[in-house]
Amino acid sequence: ESELEQAFPGQSFRGTIHRVEHHLAHLASCFLVSPFEEAVAVSVDGFGDFASAGWGVGKGAGLTLDGRVWFPHSLGAFYQAMTQFIGFPHYGDEYKVMGLAPYGEPKFLDEMRKIVLLKDDGGFELDLSYFRHHREKIDYEWSGGSPHIGTLFSPALEDLLGPAREKDETLDQRHRDIARSVQAMYEEAFFHLLEKLHARYGL
């Protein structure tokens, strides 16, 4: 009996390709190889199958997907938009924001809390006035072997935080403080979700 058949009793996986929802695949890939008999599993990323987060409970060889955060709300989209705002335009540049964050202070955390709104159930929403991805076609093209993604943030973000940094502009303390605030907001939203799930499930 395959691991997929154990995780999803009653389904045959022999000789057939089965579509597995994005976040369920993430949850299965962590829970089914974990040492835990029972645990809450959480997936948070950009988007997959129109959801940006998913969570559920694994028990034995079974797994449930109990909740999701749906498009256009996404911590991944928030982090990528802020990465662009700080002047790092390339796909995967988020590590630069993470590296810059320790050199700043979370002086813009109040502003970040206007961008990312925490919900009572543990989920989150974006204030969409600061974004473009939900109402405009965002360029997504391959060039030189890597993707290029168009600007995700709207002019309202510059009204809130001041001018965006150009990619060749010198990094100053304001940029470091924005990076630290972005990281702090991401962590606040992520741990808000984890705390709510721990209170709900007790696992």
What does this protein look like?
- By secondary structure, this protein is α+β, with helices and mostly antiparallel strands.
- Helices cover 37% and strands 20% of the residues.
- The mean pLDDT is 90.
Keywords:
four-stranded antiparallel beta sheet, two-stranded antiparallel sheet, 37% helix, globular, alpha+beta, 203 residues
Summarize the structure.
Helices cover 37% and strands 20% of the residues.
Give the termini separation.
Answer: 28 Å
Please provide the ordered H/E string of secondary-structure elements: HHEEEEHHHEEEEHH
| Fraction of helical residues | 25-40%
Low-confidence parts: none
Based on secondary structure, the structural category is alpha+beta
Largest sheet: 4 strands, antiparallel
Gross morphology is globular
The total strand number stands at 8
Mean pLDDT: 90
Describe how the helices and strands are arranged.
Layout lengths: L2 H5 L14 H10 L6 E11 L2 E9 L2 E2 L3 E4 L4 H11 L8 H7 L8 H7 E3 L5 E3 L13 E4 L2 E4 L5 H7 L11 H29 L2
Antiparallel strand pairs: 1-2, 2-3, 2-4, 5-6, 7-8
Helix pairs in contact: 3-7
